[in-house]
Write a structure and sequence with these properties.
single chain; 236 residues; alpha/beta; Rossmann fold; 6-stranded mixed β-sheet; 10 strands; globular; binds adenosine-5'-triphosphate; ATP-binding; membrane; nucleotide-binding
């Protein structure tokens, strides 16, 4: 479904991703792990067309989308949940959702069924929401574009542990019950591995490990070597 083939990309003359490859099948989820600054966000930005690709190809369905602008990628089914959430502060929850709606199975009612908290807050303005509600709204907005693949950039950042668990369950449900594929960039490896089928670990803009999430989660020594984190430090 998505094929990232030997992609070299960056900003201006700076190369961040170096011949990076991975692929995702329909309805599958991928965790993108790595230490700070290895290029995880740049991978998502490249998927959305926001970086300079100097070689390689990005294929989506039957199309080579390497040079497509972001709005065409959204139309083709890429759903972007940015790290900054980018909720419109002066629009209500309902307006935030409605402005990005595209035809398809996801509509206001379905997003509210999925995140009942958003239904309760439908008349509140974007700047009146808690961090967790803003994150639900950011995901709800991506769902309103009726994507086939969700790109989530550190969705748990800054959330209280109880919300982290709730959101992790929601994201897993999107994949398992709704058939959505996803790419999850996450600082907390254990959480990210619980939420996904496959995982890649990046170092200096390239893939140094690829495999099933459950296998990596079970190999504490490998996790520690690749990511240099004590598992006991990880919340959730
Ligand atoms: N807009 C930009 N212009 C120039 N360089 C950038 C830009 N965004 C990121 N970079 C550089 O690209 C490299 C990779 O950054 P990126 O944000 O992709 O890493 P990351 O793995 O997501 O890190 P973190 O976990 O800290 O968010 C860094 O050296 C960063 O300074």
């Amino acid at each position: 479904m998505l094929d990232f083939d030997q992609v070299t990309a960056g900003y201006g003359n700076a190369v961040v991703l170096d011949r990076l490859s991975f692929s995702i099948a329909q309805g599958r989820s991928l965790a993108v792990l790595g230490r700070n600054g290895v290029g995880k966000t740049t991978l998502l930005e490249t998927l959305m067309g926001n970086t300079r690709v100097t070689s390689g190809a990005i294929r989506w369905g039957g199309d080579d989308i390497t040079r497509w602008p972001a709005h065409l990628r959204v139309r083709a089914g890429l759903g972007w949940v940015p790290q900054e959430r980018e909720v419109f502060p002066s629009l209500t929850v309902e307006e935030n959702l409605a402005v990005v709606a595209r035809p398809g199975p996801w509509n206001l009612g379905r997003v509210y069924d999925f995140f009942p908290r958003l239904r309760e807050r439908r008349a509140n303005y974007g700047n009146q929401l808690s961090g967790g509600e803003q994150q639900m709204l950011a995901i709800g907005r991506a769902l309103m574009t009726n994507p086939a693949l969700l790109l989530l950039d550190e969705p748990m950042e800054g959330l209280a542990p109880i919300l982290v668990e709730e959101l992790a369950r929601s994201i897993r449900r999107l994949c398992e019950s709704e058939g959505l594929a996803s790419v999850v960039v996450e600082q907390h490896p254990v959480l990210a591995l619980e939420m996904t089928h496959q995982a890649i670990v990046l170092e200096r803009g390239t893939v140094v490990h690829a495999g099933p999430s459950a296998e990596l989660a079970a190999d504490v020594a490998l996790l520690d070597r690749l990511l240099g984190v004590g598992i006991e430090e990880i919340p959730g």
